[in-house]
Amino acid sequence: xxxxxxxxxxxxxxxxxxxERAAFEAGIALATAYHYLLxxxxxxRRKPLRGLLNSLSRGLESQPFREKVEIRVKGxxxxxxxxxxxxxxxxxxxxxxxVRYGKTRVWAKMGWVKExxxxxxxxxxxxxxxx
Length: 131
What we know:
The protein is an alpha+beta fold and 131 residues long. The chain has one domain: Pantoate--beta-alanine Ligase, Chain: A,domain 2, CATH 3.30.1300. The protein has helices spanning 18-37, 46-61; strands at residues 66-73, 93-101, 104-113, 118-128.
């Protein structure tokens, strides 16, 4: 795992572990995607939609410590009236991120949990490289 020097580290709590910082960064990544994308109008056809989501994913990957961002929107294209359109909402948005900070990788996910009636952001896995 390639280690990245973090010039902002000095602004954080001195005893913060890499795993805690990676989890923090994963939460920021999911929250950024959620608040940035909510309400975004969607193309009527699937092919332009895939291109749009791929471009948005690559853009969000440019944030510090992001290894991978994958955005998906559930549901098909829109076939309604001319003045209608689909948009991203909490129920159809799914985001997965992989964040690497120091010796730690965090896999996190956001998606609608019907039982909770909520777009839950959660950590799926943490991997710490041992020396």
